[in-house]
Prior knowledge:
By secondary structure, the chain is mainly alpha-helical. The protein has helices at 2-25, 33-41, 45-51, 57-65, 70-82, 90-102, 106-118, 126-138, 142-154, 162-170, 177-191, 196-202.
Amino acid sequence: MHLFKSLLICFALASAMSAHSADEIKAVQLYSQDELLGLINKNEHLSRVVLDNCQLVQDIQARAEVLKIPSYQFLWGDMLAWGVCVDSDPERGVHFMHQAAEQGLSAGLEQLGRYYSQGKLVQQDKEKAVVFLREASVLGHLKAQIQLAELFIEGYGSPYDYEDAYHWLYNAITADKPTHAKIAQCMQGLEKLMHPKAVRNARRPLNF
């Protein structure tokens, strides 16, 4: 009887180990467009590729280089720039980020704007940063809108754009308290640079 129980236990352990091994070698499904955009917006796209054991590198590359899908161009560019699952190649990485931005991917526009503002990977150029961040802001990218306002307050960009920047932030909605506080701070800074009439006009609702 004890021998029988021991055999059953051994069989159960062997089955569990076999199932675990099968799960480990199971192919990872390629990300859907919505899933990838969600990962990008949460800045979890690179960690997800690593978490998936770098199994999707060839698929990601094909969708970036052959199919030219903006979200995959952005992902592939970031992977190349920072050497995630591939050899580091910042020049090619930035090239693919530009391609994604040129196709209107707001996350790509925001990231390029942030990089030019900070001088990360590229030479610092805050006027060029304003161009990318404004394009992302028009598309409703909140992080870009905040960064754009900060650059305006620092003295970069055109005063003609202050009203738009204030308008976007005035209508921004967020449950994140630090972001909410940053928006209020940026609006106060812009108000000091704007004519009172322009501030009143900027407090109009968004056109849905």
